[in-house]
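Anyone have tokens for Nucleolar complex protein 3 homolog? Sequence:
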Amino acid sequence: MRARKNTKRVPSFRKLLRTSQIKLDNKLKNKQYKQKSAAKKYRKEQKKLREAVRDAISRKPFPLEECKKKQVGKSRKWEEKEEEDALPLDMMDEDDLKLMEDLAQKASFLTRDLSSNEPVHIKKRKHESVIEKYEKVPRRLQTEPEKELIHLLPIKDKSGIIPQAVEKPVLNDAHEEEEDTEDMEEAEDVNEEPLPVLSPEEMAAQRRQKLQERKMHIAALASAILSEPDSNIKKLKELRAMLMEQDPNVAVIVRKLVMVSLMEIFKDIAPSYKIRPLTEAEKATKVKKETQKLREFEEGLVSQYKFYLENLEQAIKDWKQRKLKKSNVISLKAYKGLAEVAVKCLCELLVALPHFNFHNNIIVLIVPLMNDPSKMISELCVEAVKKLFKQDKLGYASLGVVKVISGLVRGRNYDVRPEVLKVFLHLRIKEVELQKDSEDIAPKKKFMTYKEKRKNLSRMQRKWRKAEEKLERELLEAEASESKEKKLKLHTETLNIVFVTYFRILKKAQKSPLLPAVLEGLAKFAHLINVEFFDDLLIVLHSLIASGDLSYRESLHCILSAFHILSGQGDVLNIDPMKFYTHLYKTLFSLHAGGTNEDIGIVLQCLDVMFAKRRKQISQQRALAFLKRLSILALHVLPNSSVGILATNRVFMQTFPRMDLLLDNESQGSGVYLPELDEPEHCNAQNTALWELHLLQRHYHPTVQKFASHLIAGAPAEGSGALPLDLSQRSATELFETYCMKEMTFNPPVASVTPRRKDTFLQMDSFVDEELNKQLQQHISETVAHTPLDFAKHLKESSLA
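Reply: yep, here.
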């Protein structure tokens, strides 16, 4: 029978290497485990020994060989009792005395505990515990202090070397006590010397000198660290130690200076990547000197940065708790200044180092301070978060901040300041920016044309080049799609958290002061909401408007949100927004030239979304009614609002046909215009005229005059009545912001008028009439007698009468 063939494959060399490496690793692990277990066992034994010694010492037995001497002050009764109990030696037999003497010569008799019943020569057992061993060791208590010995030269005789020593002489205690009392008296005399009293000028000069020394020390350390961060990273610890300045005269200023200096240093020397901790395998491997130096620098930088952030956090906590420390170096009033500087440093680091370590910890510190009662601190934190949102292109930092804000709003039961939610308006989440960023990440690669290939390459080279170009195109597409998908994923998660926060407030806190911020945020991000929520959201917005609890500004935000929804993905929905048109038509007369003038910007945005982007769904009657009411409103607002409204009227006249009906005095149809009616479809706007434009032609603002004249001419695009390009190419919102008068300046500036030269003229020639001149000269030449005024004269006359 043929032998069976061995089907087992011979392992390859690579596999043998791999398995041998695994075996070596296992052996190393086993060896380490054995070493650990041996060390653990040794530690346990040592612990038992220490416990046994501690227990033995606590019991304090008294051996026979070193019992304490009897005290002199014992009572006579105890002495008499002992004398009665003790047997005199003359009453003992000679055999008993001999036995006692023999036993006294044995150490077992001397060291034995007479209270125990065990025999003297007991054998040791193998299972005897460590504690029992220590229990049987004779106790030696030092009743008297050990005497110091002076070792002398040894003596040598026949028996061997005999060491020699003499006791050190001890001075009398009385003499020592006298010396101690003398030293104490001398120290008291030194302490009793009065300190020199400084004048206020000398104290101020001394303080300035100390402060200058601290400043120079801070500057020297900072310049050394910035010049060579790798080698001088340990000086960060020395500089950070100055945050604990204990001199009460300069403590506050020095701590503030050190906080700001460290913040600037970390901004300069921090790398542009996040430093991760090294693994055990990486620490065990040998590396180059440069790599080891870099590792030490990174480790020191991260640890000092962490301690610095902890110091800033502690400064803020001390101010919040308002508790004096034991050192009492800084007063309670100074805590607020230190906390403000600490918050400024944290805000700078939040914006400057969003990629570095502990950024999430800074976010957790800053976000609750946005709701702080202190206006200065809350504004600092809000501005820092806004800057972070504006410069964050990837979205990691924005996502972290949004998560913390959402948790803060929910944790405080929606009792936060509106500014906390208004920072969401500065998020960089737009489709245009996403497309732009993806194009920047994946630039187009220029490939060779067919003619260039035929001219420069052979047939085989063209074949290889074709395959390479195909592969490169696929790689570029994959890279661009991956980066775009990553960014879209981050932005989607961020927006989901934002909308969850908004919808919670709409559902649970409709009367909260956060509602305007929620409506404003919905108006901005409404085009990014999922279509599934459109119906429910429009119903909620309409119910809020119909309730009448909203102010005109909040209702304007509701309208803007609704039309943003309908102008985007909401085109597919079959919803009639007539009720929103009616509400805006009704709200227009609530605006005026006072505090509500700034809300014209929201109205212009609403009109742009409602009419310019939905021109096919607008009837002629509705457009005429809004055109007439806006012309009336232009008479009651500031110039910048009038310019924006007239620019919107220009869009109306150019977009909708037959708007020039209102430029004719003849009525078109039956009925009378009803300006007080709040229904734009039924107010008969076609039967009126835009007489307000004639008044606006005489307006004091030149731009308003130009727009009024342009509309009276029928808003032509060309010709003599056309607007200049700088006005015609701008939107209504841009014109409203351009001619704003917030800075109390007139735009365009008023031309300066050159003052006329004052003509010199004589006093006689001031009046042409001669008779008037004579009377004037006569009155000037008369001497006037100045009599004292009596204000109580009429009172005296009335009392006499």
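Strands lie at 149-156, 161-167.
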